[in-house]
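Pasting two entries for a bug report.
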Amino acid sequence: MEPSKAVCLLSGGVDSATALAIAKAEGFVPYALSFDYGQRHRIELEAARRVAAAAGVRDHLVLTIDLRAMGGSALTADLAVPKDRPAAEMGRGIPITYVPARNTVFLAFALGWAEVLGAWDLFVGVNAVDYSGYPDCRPEFARAFETLANLATKAGVEGRGRFRVHTPLIELTKAEIIRRGLALGVDYGLTHSCYDPDASGAACGRCDSCAIRLGGFAAAGARDPVRYVAEAGGA
C-alpha cells in the first residue's frame, strides 16, 4: 500500500520545520508549500528551500500572492516591527505583525493542492502556547478549517475521504517543540524566524519571534545555531 501524502505548510521557521519532520516520522510522504506573499522577511523562503531539501520532500511549491496590496500588517506594510516587548505584553492582544487571514489563505491553497494530489492530510505548525496571540493559530481555527475543507471540496462532498488538519505542535511550548525537532534530527541552523532581519539576513534578536525563539532554545537547554546581529546578544 502506498504511503499517504500530506501537504505541509513550510515557512522556514522552527515550527513549520518541526511539523514537517513530524509528518515524515508519522509515515507521510510530504509535499511542502511555501508563500512569497510580500513579507519583509522574505529571506525565510531561502530557509524554507533549505529545510525542504534537507527533509527530502517529494515536491516543494512556492506560490506568489501579494498581500502587500491589502497591507494591515507590519510584515507587509511600512509599519515598525515591535521590538523588546516583555513576555507579558506579547501575551496580550493581537500584535501589528498579524497578517490578516494569512493562515486561512495559506490553508486554502494547501487544500486545493491536496485535492489535486489525492492527499487527505494537511500539516501546519501553528502553536497556541508560546506565540504572539494570532487568532489563526488556535485549536478552534484548525477545527473550523477542517470542517470547511470537507464541505467545500469535490472530494469531500463525494465522500471519497476526509480531510484532516494536523496541528502537532498546538499545545507544546517552544522548548518542547525544539526538543521534539532535535530528537527527529531537525537542523535548526537551516531555519529563519526573525521578522526584521538586517541586510545580511542576520536575525534582530529583539522582535517577538526572535524573543520566543531564543527563549525556547534556552528553556530546551540547546544553542540556537542561527546568526544574530551582534548587538542583540543572540547566539
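Entry 2 (this is the one that rendered wrong in the viewer):
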Amino acid sequence: MQKKAVVLYSGGLDSTTCLAIARDEGYAPYAMSFSYGQRHRQELEVARRNARPMGALDHLVVEFDLRTMGGSALTSEIEVPKGGVEEDQIPVTYVPARNTIFLSFALGWAETLGAFDIFIGVNALDYSGYPDCRPEFIAAFETMANLATKAGVEGEGCLKIRTPLISLSKAEIIRKGLSLGVDYGLTHSCYDPAEDGAACGLCDSCRLRLKGFAEVGLADPIRYRQG
C-alpha cells in the first residue's frame, strides 16, 4: 500500500516539481492549495485545473482571507516591486506567517488522512529572502508537529516535513522536473499577472523563473506580457 503524503501545491514551478517528486518517490500525493486573498489568483486557477492531471489523488482548496491583515504586496494595495531581486532584505512580497499557516493546515489534513509526510517546495538558494523558506524554520516546525499532534504524541509515526528543493538552484529544480516529465507550460509563478493571466516578467518570481530557464538553455513555455 502506498504511503500518503500531503503536498502543498500552488500551481507554481516549485510546488509542481515537488508534487512530481513525491509521486516519483512512491507516495500517494494529496494536493493542498490555498485561496487566501492573494493578488495573483491566477495561480489558484492553474492549481485547480492541473492538480489531478499532475498526479494528485485528491485536491483540497482551503479558503481564508489574509487581506484582513494585509502587510504584503500580495495581500494589499502595496505595489509589487518590478526593479529586480533585492539582496539582504525581506521584500514586501513576503506574506506574514504564510508558510506557518499553510503547514498548519497541511498538518491537520495529514493527521486526518493518516499521512506522516508533508512536502513543501521551499528553496533556500534562488528565492526572495523569505524567512519561512529557511531550513531552520522547517526543522522547528517539524519538531512542533510531533509535539502538537495525536499521531506524534501517541507514537503512531514520525511526522516529516519534506523539502526536496531546499538546496537546489532554480535551474536544478527545472532540470529535475523535466526529468520527471513535468510540463512547465501548465504552471504559473507571477506575482502580478495581467487580467488574461499573462505573467509580468518583472516581479521577483518571474525574474527567478526566467533566470532558471535561461541557465537550462530553454525558453520558458508560459505566456508573458508583450512590451
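Dev reply: Rendering is fixed now. As a check, the viewer should reflect this: The CA atoms of residues 171 and 217 lie 9 Å apart.
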